[in-house]
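FAQ: What does the model actually see?

It sees only this:
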Amino acid sequence: MNADIAVQEKLLEVDGLSATFRSNSVRALRDVSFRIDAGEVVALVGESGSGKSTTGLAIMGLLERGEASLSGSIRLVRKSGERAELVGLAENRMRSVRGNDVAMIFQEPMSSLDPIYSVGDQIAEAIAAHQDLPRARVEDEALRLLTIMAIPDPAKCFVSYPHQLSGGMRQRVMIAMALSCRPRLLVADEPTTALDVTIQAQIIDQLGILQRDAGMAVLFVTHDLGLAADLADRVLVMYAGQIVEAGPADQVFSRPTMPYTAGLMRSRPRIGAGRAAGGQIQPIPGGVPDLARLPTGCTFHPRCAHAVTGRCDVTLPALEPADGGRAVRCLRWREITP
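And it is asked to produce this:
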């Protein structure tokens, strides 16, 4: 899905973003910084509980204001050319951004689609929210989007209800809704996790075609490193609410500098990599730490084979520049990178 557009306009800039849930004082995000250029595909990878989905929800302004507090900055260049600060943006203004300038595909479409309205009505509502069009034009556009998503009988799907569709069809509908106002940025949160591999491949291929045709930027949230390697121009690796490695996807996956990234690569199932070839899965010891009780120093040090007592368990590493346009959060990356 690599974008053909060579424009290096900074579309989204996230700077020092932190998110704290008020109910338990847990900091789900800590000093998260990254950018996405116009037309670029960026993968956000990491284990469950690392903060990937929370990052996407923060960009969309969907973290409940009464439940979570945000600090830092999220700046988005809108279609109008305005550079909007999304942190602290009033909800009535955020509604004009959400769906129009940035849209999101959620992991589970059944929880995102309204069961009491037809598919057509829901897509039409998304279009009408940001475009002043006659009802007939709105319905024509909804049918066009369903056709683009390769739904076999768009007219039948238009009048169907979510429960009458397969999981793959529901996800195609969600993508059609997300693209209905031609957003500049699409946040795709594990969009194919619950689907079988054949349907997954079809949807990813279709999404790639649409992304290239529209010149749209994508933040692809996933735990699937294979998909990330295939689709992304750049990759962000997240652990315990922080970015721990970032850079061009081919470089990060072929020569990781952060031990956590290397551990993710070793724990990934690979077809055809048998034991004789040394291809057995090597899971990372332990688990993602409780965000309410993070270890001192580097948050990965209790699971890291390269950790040095008195150093890695004491000093919190900064995200610093590394080779090849990358950034890494590790005190020892120069010593341990092959």
